[in-house]
Specification:
This protein has two helices and six strands. With about 140 residues, it is mostly beta strands.
């Protein structure tokens, strides 16, 4: 029997404060966006950057952790799974959303700590330094 694997590992920055909701049964669920960046040099040697945004969903205890410890700018390590969700938009068209269901969240650097750190702690490759202006939010 063949086995399969659905595993996602992400390190990035939170784009805005998490939204916390509760199911009718009172189960907490948190949702937020996480930005991951990729850096490379183009053919002229200029440093380029691409940002990918991921929707993160956390349930129960992770949602409560999210509410207490995570805010816009927090740097996180997330381990989870890709999930798809089907819904209808305002025009009635059927849409599919892809989300990361978090199994584990580790706070690497909080927003307040990030503001006081030296730029070398979060630099892009090739020795280029970044500043808070480089964060895409």
């Amino acid at each position: 029997m063949a086995r399969s694997l659905n595993k996602v590992l992400l390190i990035g920055h939170v784009g805005k404060d998490p939204e916390i909701r509760y199911t009718p049964a009172g189960v907490p669920v948190a949702q937020f966006r996480l930005a991951t960046n990729e850096y490379w040099r183009d053919s002229e040697g200029q440093l380029q950057e691409a940002t990918e945004w991921h929707t993160i969903v956390a349930w129960r205890n992770l949602a409560e952790l999210t509410e207490r410890q995570i805010q816009r700018g927090t740097r996180l390590f997330i381990e989870g799974r890709i999930r798809s969700r089907t819904y209808e938009d305002a025009s009635g068209a059927r849409r599919v959303a892809y989300e990361i269901q978090a199994d584990s969240i580790i706070v690497l650097v909080g927003r307040k700590e990030a503001d006081t750190q030296s730029p070398q702690s979060d630099t892009p490759p090739e020795g280029e330094s970044s500043s808070s202006e480089d964060v895409p939010f």
